[in-house]
Design brief:
Order of helices and strands of chain B: HHEEHHHHHHHHHHHH
Largest interface: A-B, 52 and 52 residues
Helix content of chain A: 40-55%
Distance between the termini of chain B: 68 Å
Distance between the termini of chain A: 44 Å
Strand content of chain B: under 5%
Mean pLDDT of chain B: 86
Oligomer: heterodimer
Low-confidence stretches of chain B: 1-11
Keywords (chain A): Signal
Number of strands of chain B: 2
InterPro entries (chain A): Bact_solute-bd_prot1, SBP
CATH superfamily of the largest domain in chain B: MetI-like
Low-confidence stretches of chain A: 1-32
Protein name (chain A): Cellobiose transport system substrate-binding protein
CATH architecture of the largest domain in chain B: Orthogonal Bundle
Number of helices of chain B: 14
Structural class of chain A: alpha/beta
Organism (chain A): Nonomuraea angiospora
Structural class of chain B: mainly alpha
Largest sheet of chain A: 5 strands, mixed
Radius of gyration of chain B: 28 Å
Pfam family, one (chain A): SBP_bac_8
Order of helices and strands of chain A: HEHEHEHHHEEHHHHHHEHEEHHHHHH
Strand order of the largest sheet of chain A: 2-1-3-8-4
């Protein structure tokens, strides 16, 4: 009895491991796509990014093409599922990978089709250079075509701002906070007047936004880990602690139940809003339609997020998948997706398109989100995202959250965070 | 002549004997065939993955890249890793917080159900199983909402008593308590039914005799029920120890994160294994955690075995 009960537990993981071992060796797939019926393929995406809009449009335009779209889960869960699939040998034909999860895959390019061989060389000029270079491996292999970038802005509740005696017009609101310090000062005024929290939490609404502005995040341009000495990281960290100590946060972690409930009930007036966040707000608080507006972000240009389409090496219908990429991710294709789903194109040639500049969002009081988000990318200094960026960001965020919850000592938070990152990534 | 001799010998040999020998060989082998499926399945799904885990633990194993042999480095790293000891501490704390109340509650309930002349006794007995058949995920989502800081039922009720909202998920003791409540709720009915089944095997006459001798309910419970339940109590302690080392779904779902909170306040060992193996994709390190967990289970099982052999003579 004991043995029977013990083994399944300890070894649930081992099972997956043994599958990994069986499949890991079989990498003799030819680099040119072959096989498959070139009509149907399997596509793994994550939820919340609305790839279904693209898939439906593509199937309508190309009768006879069958796309099996699976929304695996969150972006992280999708990357995990992909890793397991790559190790196990049974892979989808096309997969969407989020920017922060991409470096781990770029470091092992042998798991993917080198898209240059399918023609990526000819179209790579259509995309932002720095976005394209993130999916280019050391040997020059291109493993992913970018679908969108995460331009940044701030979403705010105009109705709540009015109650607090703050301006409600998006131009004027943007002028309230040219810097993050001014942003925190505005928060203090709001909280003093209303007694309510100003923003959802400091870790995402201040730290994650601020740390994504500037030329050097956790890695230097040649790929060395510099999180502990990068001034950009320390500044963002200190700013978020300042927001915590000002007592203007609702202490609601992003994407938790309390966050969703608080958003609907107006518990906080401001949320950081990379372009993909707008969809989340729409879905989580549908009753607040028309109460929101979007203003520019303090501190200038930056990027948070963005995704890539890649074709795993073992894909059976690589050709069909590649055709899908070229058609849907062309500048016109990305523009169409933006008009449907709101993710910002990676193709600068459409940034001046009247449809994009003129794009207004009714949910957000008719804010010109096209213009706001493209402007947030202008003058951007790209930074290198490394294989441990995601883990480093998580530990730093946890240290801030711990202070926010009243458990951590703000004076020790930075040292604790550095120690935890070191334990997590070993350097 | 020789032929006839041998024939006569053969005739002399009792035919029943040869048949019996032949049959007994078949009889000896047959049971092994009957139990073979278990051992085959165990070998495939238990032993091989187990040995493979030991093997992987010796590597820096990237699932989609290289596998570098590093010997026992993963283990020395594990012993120096504060996150491992934190996870171990959390696991033990949650186990104690959930097992002790669960077993005590189950004992008392079983005693009540065994004795009380309840209307709808069968209904009450069957309803004990409802929590057990409810999905863990559903249980967790409901409890997490009930214990929410701002919008939870519990804090709403406490608010009437003038208590400030408690943030269960963010504190160490609060998150442990929350998980323990879920585990207790889910398992106490099952344990109660186990105890009840044992209690019903005790002849009524013993209780009646005790009652005649003037023993009240509590004395009957202490001196008749508990001693006769000993083997079942040992069994439930063993199963709940193993279950306690496996707690995974509850902490994962209440926090929606692999660390279970900003300071890993409710990260259990299995969740730590999952984070390292399937979050960070350090398969080698994850396997080392799996081996450590295996050792812990063996230790726990041994302690339980010693305990149960110690009390056996008293039966």
């Amino acid at each position: 009895m004991k043995l029977r009960n013990v083994t399944p537990v300890v070894l649930a993981a081992a099972l997956a491991l043994s599958t990994a071992a069986c499949g890991g060796g079989g990498g003799g797939t030819p680099s040119q796509p072959s096989g498959g019926d070139s009509k149907s393929f399997e596509f793994w995406s994550f939820s919340g990014i609305d790839q279904k809009a693209d898939v439906d449009r593509y199937q309508k335009q190309n009768p006879g093409v069958q796309i099996k779209l699976t929304e695996v889960g969150s972006s992280v869960e999708t990357a995990q599922a992909l890793t397991t699939a790559l190790a196990g040998g049974k892979v989808p034909d096309l997969v969407l990978i989020q920017g922060d999860d991409l470096p781990k895959f770029v470091q092992q390019p042998q798991n993917f089709y080198d898209l240059r061989q399918l023609g990526a060389d000819k179209i790579k000029g259509d995309y932002l250079d720095w976005v394209m270079s993130a999916s280019t491996a050391k040997g020059g292999e291109i493993i992913g075509i970018p679908t969108d970038v995460g331009g940044m802005a701030v979403a705010y509740r105009a109705d709540l701002f009015k109650e607090a005696g703050l301006p409600t017009d998006r131009e004027e609101v943007g002028k309230l906070w040219p810097t993050w310090d001014a942003f925190i000062e505005t928060g203090k005024k709001y909280t003093a007047k209303t007694g309510k929290a100003f923003m959802d939490n400091a870790a995402t609404s201040v730290f994650y936004q601020a740390v994504n502005q500037g030329p050097q995040k956790y890695y230097d341009p040649s790929g060395n880990v510099v999180y502990s000495t990068s001034p950009q990281v320390k500044t963002a960290f200190d700013l978020s602690l300042k927001a915590v100590q000002a007592g203007i946060t609702a202490k609601q972690g992003t994407f938790t139940e309390g966050w969703t409930a608080g958003m609907g009930k107006g518990q906080f007036a401001v949320i950081s809003a990379p372009s993909w966040m707008l969809g989340s707000i729409r879905r989580n608080a549908p009753d607040t339609k028309g109460k929101w507006d979007v203003a520019t972000i303090p501190g200038g240009a930056g990027n948070w997020g963005g995704s890539y389409l890649a074709i795993p090496k073992g894909a059976k219908n690589a050709k069909a998948a590649w055709e899908y990429i070229t058609k849907t991710q062309s500048p016109q294709g990305q523009l169409a997706h933006f008009l449907d789903a709101g993710s910002l194109p990676t193709t600068p040639s459409v940034y001046k398109d009247a449809q994009l500049i003129g794009m207004k969002d009714e949910f957000f009081s008719g804010a010109p989100i096209g213009a706001i988000y493209t402007n947030s990318l202008l003058g951007l200094k790209p930074f290198y995202i490394g294989p441990d960026s995601s883990a480093i960001g998580q530990e730093l965020q946890n240290a801030i959250t711990n202070v926010e919850q009243g458990k951590g000592d703000p004076a020790k938070a930075w040292d604790t965070a550095l120690a935890n990152v070191k334990t997590a990534i070993g350097k | 002549m020789t032929t006839s001799l041998s024939t006569s010998r053969a005739v002399q040999t009792p035919p029943a004997l040869t048949t019996r020998v032949r049959q007994s060989i078949g009889e000896r082998i047959a049971p092994y065939f009957y139990i073979a499926p278990f051992f085959l399945i165990f070998a495939v799904f238990g032993l091989v993955p187990l040995l493979f885990t030991f093997y992987v633990a010796l590597f820096d194993w990237n699932p989609i890249g290289e596998h570098v042999f590093i010997g026992f480095d993963n283990f020395s790293r594990l012993l120096a890793d504060a996150r491992f000891w934190n996870a171990l501490k959390n696991t033990i704390s949650i186990w104690v917080l959930s097992t002790v109340p669960q077993l005590v509650l189950a004992l008392l309930l079983a005693h009540l159900l065994n004795h009380a002349r309840l209307r709808l006794a069968v209904f009450f007995r069957m309803s004990m199983l409802v929590p057990y058949i409810t999905s863990v995920a559903a249980t967790t989502i409901v409890f997490a909402q009930m214990f929410d800081r701002d919008y939870g039922l519990l804090n709403w009720l406490l608010g009437f008593a003038g208590v400030e909202p408690i943030d269960f998920k963010q504190s160490v003791w609060g998150s442990h308590l929350l998980i323990a409540v879920m585990v207790t709720w889910r398992w106490f009915g099952y344990t109660t039914l186990l105890y009840l089944a044992s209690l019903q095997a005790i002849p009524r006459a013993i209780y009646e005799a005790a009652a005649v001798d003037g023993a009240g309910g509590w004395k009957q419970f202490r001196h008749i029920s508990i001693p006769s339940l000993r083997p079942v109590i040992v069994f439930t302690v063993v199963t709940s120890t193993i279950g306690g080392l496996q707690i995974f779904t509850e902490p994962l779902l209440i926090s929606r994160s692999q660390t279970c909170g900003a300071i890993r306040q409710c990260q259990t060992l299995t969740l730590f294994l999952y984070e390292q193996g399937f979050g960070q994709f350090q398969f080698g390190y994850g396997a080392a955690i799996g081996v450590a967990l295996f050792v812990l289970v063996i230790v726990a099982a041994t302690v339980n075995y010693l305990l149960s052999t110690r009390i056996r003579p008293e039966r």
